[in-house]
Design goal:
Two copies of one chain form a homodimer.
Chain A: H1 17-24, H2 27-39, E1 42-43, H3 44-47, H4 53-65, E2 69-74, E3 77-82, H5 84-90, H6 94-117
Antiparallel strand pairs in A: 1-3, 2-3
The structure holds a DNA duplex.
Protein name (chains A, B): Transcriptional regulator, ArsR family
GO molecular function (chains A, B): DNA-binding transcription factor activity
Organism (chains A, B): Marinactinospora thermotolerans DSM 45154
Chain lengths: ~120, ~120
DNA sequence: TTGATTGTGCGAATATTTTCGCACTATGAT
DNA sequence: ATCATAGTGCGAAAATATTCGCACAATCAA
C-alpha cells in the first residue's frame, strides 16, 4: 500500500495578499516564481538545483501555503506549478505586474554589469 | 541655527522589487500605504495614531528606505506621501494592482463579518 | 530485496524583524 | 527661557524567518 504524499493548499478565496507579497519578497522565491511562470510545471530540483533539500522544501512549502504555487507528488518527484489563474482571480494583474517589473529590473542589472565591466558580447 | 531633519530616499531607478514587496507584505504598512494612496500626504501620527512613536518611526523609515514613501520635515511634523509616480515608472501598475487587490479582499472580509454575525446596516 | 533517488520533518543555529521604553533633539507656542 | 509636542536613534527583548544536517519515508529500478 502507499500513503501517497498529499499537500494542502489554500482555496482561491482564502489567499491572503500580505502572505503572497511576503512570499514574493524573497529573492530566491521570486526567482522560483519567475521560472514557474516561464517554464510551466517544474519538479523541485529544477527549481533550486543548488539548494540543500530541506531548504528547498521550506521555500516550496511557503509558496504552496501562501497560495502562490500548486504542488503535487509525481512518483518520487514533487511537481510544482504557479497558481496563475487562481492568483489572477483573487488579485487581478498582480502576478503579471510583479513578474514584468522583476524582468525589467533584471534586464537593467545585466545592462549595468555589461557596461560596468566593459564586457562586450 | 538649525540642523533641519533630512531624509535619504533611494532614486527611482534604484528601487528594489523584493524590498518593495517586503514593505507591502506587512499588514500595518500595507494599511499605511492604502491611507496614503487615498488621502494623499499625511503626517505620521495620522498614519498610525495608536502606535508608539518609535514603532511608527520604524515603519515609516522602512517605507522610505524601500522607496515606497517620501518623507519630509514640516515644522515638528513629519509629512509622508506615497511615491506613486516613481513606483509606477519603476514597476508599472504594481501599486495599483496591490491596492485594488487589498481593497477587494478587505471588502470581502467585511462581507464575511456582516453575514457571519447577522449584522445588517 | 537491495540500493539509489527524492522529498519530508525535526531541531538547532543564525539572522532578521518587530516592538517599544527611554533619553535626546528639534520645533513652535507662551 | 520654558514648556509641550513630534520625531529620532539606541538598545534590548521577543517573535519570525532562514538555513541546513540528519534521520526517515516513499518510490523506482535492478
Amino acid at each position: 500500500m502507499a500513503a501517497v504524499r498529499t499537500y494542502v493548499h489554500p482555496e482561491t478565496g482564502e489567499i491572503s495578499l500580505p502572505r503572497v507579497l511576503f512570499a514574493l519578497s524573497e529573492p530566491l522565491r521570486l526567482e522560483m516564481v519567475r521560472k514557474l511562470a516561464e517554464e510551466g510545471e517544474l519538479d523541485s530540483i529544477e527549481l533550486g538545483p543548488d539548494l540543500p533539500r530541506s531548504t528547498l522544501t521550506h521555500h516550496t512549502s511557503l509558496l504552496r501555503e501562501s497560495g502562490v504555487a500548486f504542488v503535487r507528488a509525481e512518483g518520487r518527484k514533487c511537481m510544482i506549478s504557479l497558481r496563475a489563474e487562481d492568483l489572477d482571480l483573487r488579485f487581478p494583474g498582480l502576478i503579471d505586474t510583479v513578474l514584468s517589473g522583476y524582468k525589467s529590473a533584471r534586464a537593467e542589472e545585466s545592462d549595468d554589469e555589461t557596461r560596468g565591466s566593459g564586457v562586450e558580447q
